[in-house]
Design a protein that fits this description.
The protein has helices at about 5-10, 70-80, 85-90, 95-115, 120-125, 130-160, 165-190, 195-215, 220-245, 255-285, 290-320. With about 325 residues, it is an all-alpha fold.
Length: about 325
């Protein structure tokens, strides 16, 4: 993330090399010998009066010059202004980052809820069991569209030079479609499992966030290297298992092996969440542009959704055992 604030760099107050506003200059008349009551003359200009040719009574005070073209009222108004916020400076703050995170998760949850309610709504509208099946079909199509769309939006965000709020919100919509379809399937087979998975995800993610803010959890180069190796192994295992499932050979994500793999995945997602929180903290501390708050929200959403799906799988395996 950028460390320089473009708003401040373009400000007129920082255009000179010193970084400060230029010092005021005063027009001062040279000292000349004159009789009391005689008009002053400027240097090199005979008979040119300084100010107005009038007598000055004892105790007369010359008017104070204005500083840098500002009147005393302007300076007083500047001093009374409140401190600049992240909105004023265009910098990334905890506040605008939390707003982006809230909006992203709000869209995901709202879209997922709509998809999960499709069978119920279609059954009520059509009044038959066939309507419920149509709702399931729509939810399945929505999950496929969501899987493709979320993958594309993540790639777009990765290669996009400038962070975009619309890319993050588009990802939230697609992720909601995918998450709603998956949750509907598991909820149909294992009633009540979605609520359990949501509670488990909130417990794990909430605990990690609290411990991070307390300074108890931090990343390290060694742990990050171990995380990358473990994540690579997990990714290869997932691809192999997907091929075996599509070929109808077997499913390795069952039984105790499935539980162990799921626990490893939750641990990886937990460390990824710590990494995301550190990225957000570094962005806020370094004064990154506030648009990066949406990138942080997208990364956090990917991690939390991953954690939720893994907890959902673990609960499903335990239900079957």
């Amino acid at each position: 993330m950028a460390r320089n604030n473009a708003i401040l760099n373009n400000s007129p107050a920082f255009r000179n090399s010193g970084g400060y506003a230029p010092a005021p200059e005063y027009n001062q008349a040279p000292a000349t010998q004159q009789q009391w009551g005689q008009p002053q003359q400027q240097w090199g200009q005979p008979q040119q009066q300084w100010g107005q040719p009038q007598q000055q009574a004892p105790g007369y005070q010359a008017p104070q010059p204005q500083q840098a073209g500002y009147s005393p009222a302007d300076l007083e108004a500047m001093y009374n202004r409140p401190a600049a916020t992240g909105f004023d400076t265009g910098r990334m703050t905890w506040r605008n980052t939390m707003n982006a995170i809230t909006a992203t998760f709000g869209v995901i949850i709202a879209v997922a809820f709509v998809i999960m309610m499709l069978p119920t709504v279609t059954a009520l509208v059509m009044g038959t069991e066939e309507g419920r099946q149509i709702g399931f079909a729509f939810a399945s199509i929505a999950a496929i569209v969501g899987a493709i769309g979320s993958f594309v939006t993540v790639l777009v965000n990765a290669f996009k030079k400038t962070p975009s709020m619309w890319v993050t919100l588009a990802y939230a919509v697609f992720e909601g479609l995918l998450l709603g379809g998956i949750s509907l399937f598991f909820e149909t087979v294992y009633p009540g499992i979605v609520l359990q998975a949501v509670i488990g995800t909130l417990a794990v993610a909430g605990s990690i966030t609290v411990l991070f803010r307390m300074g108890k959890l931090r990343t390290s180069p060694k742990l990050t290297k171990m995380f990358l190796i473990a994540f690579g192994a997990y990714f290869v295992f997932t691809l192999v298992n997907l091929v075996l499932v599509l070929l109808g050979v077997t499913n390795l994500r069952t039984g105790m092996l499935g539980v162990v793999i799921g626990l490893v995945a939750v641990a990886l997602a937990s460390y990824s969440l710590v990494m995301d929180l550190e990225v957000i903290r570094n962005g806020v501390d370094s004064g990154a542009p506030k648009a990066y708050a949406w990138t942080a929200a997208l990364g956090l959403a990917v991690t939390v959704v991953w954690m939720y799906t893994e907890i959902l799988r673990i609960l499903a395996i335990l239900r079957d055992s």
